[in-house]
Amino acid sequence: MYASFDLGGTSLKHGILDEQGEIIKKGKIPVHDDVWFIFDLIADQVEKYQEEYNVSAICLSTPGAVNCQTGIIHGYSALPSIHGPNWIKELKKRCSLPVSIENDANCAALAEVFAGAGKGYKDLICLVIGSGIGGAIIKNKEIHHGKHLSGGEFGYAVFQQKNGELSTFSDLAATVKMVQKVRKELEDESLDGQKIFKMALQGEKVCQEAVSEFYFQLAVGIYNLQYIYDPEIVLLGGAVSQQEDFVEQIYAKIDEVLEKVKIADLKPQIAKCSYGPDANLAGAMVHHLQMKNK
Q: What global pTM score does this model have?
């Protein structure tokens, strides 16, 4: 059995999983920005699981640029204190068990390959659309981290606009940016993504234009990624991906891109992520098994 943990900005999800990825038991604990407090929470939960199960390892999913070999989290996140300490060393000291750690978006992608929409594929991209654009690159069913642990940080890609200004992919195609734009134009701070999509369907012009631009910019990014990496499939996650016609709308915009760029005719295959809210718990376990078998 594997004790798996998924650290977020305000909570720590935990679960006990078997080797087939089935979650036998799970829960959630509130957290705050104190890494030593988080270490103790994890150790306490592992001890509780050990009273019922034969726990063979601790598997972690966290924000940030995770160095899986050293156990140190680089980069930035909503929990600044987690960056710097050696997670593997500290938790081994507390629990006397093997410990593995991986970035949360990478864990979600591994879960999709293991038992989700990515099952059966070797090379794919997972794109997560939310407050920014993030995701993961899968090569031969494993994460491609990159030299500087920046593999899958698609949101930092830069595009030049008609006015000559440079904007990142996150600026152009993240849900939060679209919401901010519509709120400003309609002078209504109560609007969220769900309301904007609904108002667009009802014929509200500002919302229609914002949603159309959102889909187009997302399609441009996916088109670029297809030609940069040439994956078998691009999987789309984030709350906005649950829109009923999400994939169809992006395909329509990709067709517009292909029509404008006559020299290119490779149409990306896209699909929604399907594993569900516990993807990071399962993905952390998949990552552990991959590290163990190397």
A: 0.89
